[in-house]
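Thread: nicotinamide-adenine-dinucleotide complex, take 2
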Amino acid sequence: MARIAFIGLGHMGGGMAPNLAKAGHEVRAFDLSEEALSKACEQGCGRAGSTEEAVKDAEVVITMLPAAKHVLDVYRRQVFGNAPANALLIDCSTIDVASARTIEEEASAKGYEMVDAPVSGGIAAAAGGTLAFMVGGSDEGFAKAKPFIDPMAKAVIHAGGPGAGQAAKICNNMILGATMAVTCEGFVLAQKLGLDPQVFFDISSQASGQSWSMTSYCPVPGVGPKTPADNNYEGGFAAALMLKDLKLADEAAKSVGAYTPMGGEAEELYQRFVDRGGGNKDFSGIIKMIDDSWTVPDQH
Ligand code: NAD
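Output below.
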């Protein structure tokens, strides 16, 4: 069992860190939000007063932060130099490939082993320990990180070298954003053509229009398994974070000259949804904007 510092206890980290504690690790948690930190401590994590305190003597450091600027800042100012030289560093945040490679190079120059390990699966999977992890880093880094990732995961896949986990994550989420948008369009069109949404679901979920967005995360309330659609699009994966990932995919595509027009369309749609006040809604809530007869979500 290891001493693990866990930094960032929001929607995702707040579910993940307690699973490491349940697995028997000594988790020292820190978040700038007192509320988030207290929740994690109620579920078996130890309280640290700062990131520096959490990482001191840690064998493993795990971060789950909003975006690249937080990750770069936390590692450069608080983790490097404070965590022991043999600590293994695992960043689970979704950030751009270039920043992931930069921070991993900086870590390596200071003698640390570091991997990027972004996740897929959402809040329920974070709490349930059933996330899919895509890991970028050396073979050795992956082998070292896997046993610590396992209690939070249903699948842990080595995507390739440094940044490869982030590359896989943004390609996956570009597919997800475009697929969700077109699934919403399909349901809205079906309804306007006189089809019952449940009947359309029964057909398309067994036909070639089937996708995860339809069968696991249906954007129509009361159809398919329970999803954020059944909770007025609250909780789940915020549209603002989906927009962030689509922008990351767009930047990545430009950096290598890849043609991704569907990803671009999805980015434009999610930008419009966020501009209209949907940023805190679950990303499936974009169906409300696609169906002009539905109400646009309230601003939070
Ligand atoms: P969140 O905003 O709920 O949590 C981030 C936490 O980091 C917050 O509690 C915040 O207080 C804390 N934080 C920020 N700066 C900090 C600092 N300097 N020191 C300590 N704590 C700090 O975000 P989330 O939904 O948990 O997402 C985290 C990451 O996971 C993001 O990169 C996101 O894109 C990715 N992700 C989210 C989901 C999802 O469904 N929410 C799914 C897959 C991946």
